Amino acid sequence: MDKTNKERERALRLINLSTFMDMKFNRVQFEGEWRNLIGDPVLTGIWMLWGQSSNGKTSAAIKLLRYLTNFEKCIYWSKEEGVSDTLQTAFNRENWMLSEKKKVFIPQTYWNMGNLKELLRQPKSPKIVFMDSLQIFAKLYGSQFYYDLKEEFAHKKLFVYVSQADGKEPKGTIGDDVKYDSNVKMRVEGGKLTAQSRILGSKYGSHVVVHEQLYNEYYRS
How many whole angstroms separate alpha carbon 134 and alpha carbon 190? Predict the structure, then answer.
């Protein structure tokens, strides 16, 4: 039996409840404000971050991205800002160490969904993918792109979707669907990131300040 048939046979097997309840999942230990906000997660599946324009959404995503480099290599794919000076400025707000920079990869402008899938199929590819913004990816590739990535990769990779907002909720049907699927749902307003998390260790009411100037102007002025 060749490798492909063995993998297909393995995928079709059922496991009983006893086996499932004995399974061990590879949780990582977050610390400080990020543990309070999110908990101790398994770095697979779907997370979502959303907010209105000019409230610190990109800053929140980049601050989270930087923290996640403590654990894994990451891709930050921005179709909203692209490879631009504005995105560079957002990255420069964080005081990056060289070791952190080497764990973050930025796709070039000509990159497409096929390139992402091809890369993620490689054994040592980055484990965490930020996609900004969800709505622009849906316009370019149709909403099916999300379900295809989820089906093929979400059991072994973590996708963090950065979303536009309609009021206090993610924008559109695709926003609703991704929010429903997400183990961590994060909203940024006035430079402050709050979250609802299904993950053990998170603390209700916690927040992370992701943009000091916005936060001070919004909440303290």
Answer: 21
With a CB cutoff of 8 Å and minimum separation 6, the contacts of 205 are none
Kindly state whether residue 14 falls inside one of the protein's structural domains. Answer: no
Bridge partners of 78, per DSSP, are 132
Q: Give me the half-sphere count of Cα atoms (radius 13 Å) on the Cβ side of residue 173.
A: 5
Residue 2 lies in a domain: no
Task: Convert the pLDDT of each residue in 188-216 to its tens digit.
Answer: 999 999 999 878 888 889 999 999 999 99
Q: Are 133 and 164 in contact (CB under 8 A)?
A: yes
Q: Containing domain of residue 208, as a range?
A: 25-219
- Residue at 15 is within a domain: no
Q: What is the pTM of this model?
A: 0.91
* CB contact at 8 A, 162 and 130: yes
Domain count, the chain: 1
Q: Nearest CA to 128 among 56, 47, 52?
A: 47
Q: Which residues contact 63 (CB under 8 A, 6 or more apart)?
A: 94, 193, 208, 210
Query: Would 208 be classed as within a structural domain?
Result: yes
- Phi, psi of 12, rounded to the nearest 5 degrees: -85, -10
Q: What is the CA radius of gyration of the chain?
A: 18
Structural tokens at position 144: 């099916």
